[in-house]
Amino acid sequence: MVSTYIESGSAVLGHAWSGTGKADSNPLDVVPACHEANVVDRCRYGRTSADNVGAMTDKTTDGDLQALYLSAEQRWMQGWLAGPTIEGNPLHRGDLAPAVDVVDERGVSASLASVWESQPALVLLWRHLGCGCGLERGERLKEEHQAYVDSGLNVVIVAPADLERVARYKERYEIPVTMYSDPGYSAHKAFGLGHWALEQALYDAPDEYCELGEETGRRFQEDRRSQGRPLVDDPWMQSGEFVVAPDGRIRVAYLYNYCADYPDSRVFTTAGRLLG
Hints:
This protein has helices spanning about 35-40, 60-80, 130-150, 165-175, 185-190, 200, 215-225, 265-275; strands at about 100-105, 110, 120-125, 155-160, 180, 240-245, 250-255. With about 280 residues, it is of the alpha/beta class. The protein has a single domain, classed as Glutaredoxin (3-Layer(aba) Sandwich).
């Protein structure tokens, strides 16, 4: 997998593998502690995709969310056992950004190109909604957001989850920008992102994790679920952040080499000013 970076950051939330992290003060009480197959089979994952829009999150019940989270956890486990499989070929500066369809916060299908058609945009491609590094990136984003706005950037997140889970995540963690739903990782793939290698995803984990055993994966899931942030969707997908000019050309392509490889916000704000 091709993977380049501008500048590396450092993790603040601590190792995810120890099982000793402090539990979240506001856990997702709709996430169940069991995996009954009949509940998973009833999940409605994908009903808010770009092909089936108009879902209303205010009508979502706790039971609906339970089913969605259970299905997303099941996908994570399947991915964990399979290991990294998607080879990336990332887009670079000067390439045209893909105008993929995503789902906006109203549940309406929208072209991602709409976010940069009138001003430069910073597009953040989130790994998954159970990632501790995503929470840290969200905190950084809160601190950096005004600087992005002042530099002329329209900042959006594309989250690989159904609309209901994206809405719950945004509300819970007070994410200050628009979040689009893309449960099939179509934007990640269109930008050429792929799976991290084991050493990129598990660089700070005990050696036993690199064996990708089912029991290890289940212990990992149980620990995260007890903290109120279950492991969901694709465990290996790379994160990326792109500044796109109004002509649709990529100005900055920032590819994470590992989970906590956060960018220096000044790279983006300088690009925004230069494009303004």
